[in-house]
Amino acid sequence: MTQPGVSSDAAPSSDGSTAGLSDRLDAAGRIARQAGRHALALRRDLASLEVEEKGLQDFVTRADVEVEALIRDALLGCFPDDGFLGEESSRRAPNDGHGTWVVDPIDGTSNYIRGIRHWGVSMGYVQDGRIEVGVIHDAPNDALYAARRGGGASRDGVPITVSKTADMNKALAFMGMSRRMGLDDYLGDIRRLTVAGADYRRLGSAAIGLARIAEGVADLYFEAHLNSWDALAGMLIVAEAGGSVRTPDLQVMLDRGGPVLADNGRLGEQIGFLADRV
Question: What is the pLDDT of residue 43?
C-alpha cells in the first residue's frame, strides 16, 4: 500500500508542466551534490564545526546551518516562487501555484560528527498534497539517489529497484529509534522482527536507510517518528523504485512528523505488526 503523498500517478501539478518538475529534479540533484561535498569539506576541520545540543543526543553544527543556507539560496535562486522548509531554519511560504522544498542539510548529524559514513543531504519538493521530487546525496560515497513522481528512481542516473525478498527468514531491516517514542516499543519491535526471522541494523540516518531500501540493499525500514525533512525524499524514492510506503497523511507529516514504514512490497502480513504502528 502506497500512501497518497508518494503516489506514482504521473499527472502534472497545478504549476503546469512535467518539464517544470524535470527542471526541479535536475537542479535539486546538482545542488544536493554540491551541498554534500561542501559538508565533507567542512568536516575536515572538526574544531570549527561548533557542535551544539538541541536535545538529548540531538546535535547541530555550523555545517548544518551553513549547508542549509547554501541549499536554500541555490534553490530559491532557481525557483524564486517556491517555498522552503528546512530543519535548521524557519518556513518560507510559496507563492500561489508553487510547491515547497523540504530539506535536511545533513541527515545523520551524529554520524557526521563522529566520522561514521551514514549521512547525507535530503531534499523533497511537495506540491498539491504530493511529493513530486526527491533527491538524497550520500555524501561519503558521492552517490546521488533521485526520483520524480511517475518517473522511476535512480542512483547516479542508473535505475534502481527494491529487493525481491519475500521470506522474513532472509530479510534485513533497518530500524530507526526516535527518542520522541517509548524505548519499550522500539525494543518490542526488534524482538518481534527477530522472532519472525529477520536481521536488523540501525544506521542513524533515515534518508540513507530509505535510499538503501530503494536500491535493494535491505528489505524494510521502520521508525516510529520521523520529521518531514528526514523522510519525504526517501519515501518518494522508495515508492518510485517499486516499494511500498506507509505513513500518516502528508500534511500530518509536514505539520508534526510521524511513523514511516517502507518496504519492498513483498513481505505482506509478515510485517503486519509494524504496519499496525503507522
Answer: 82
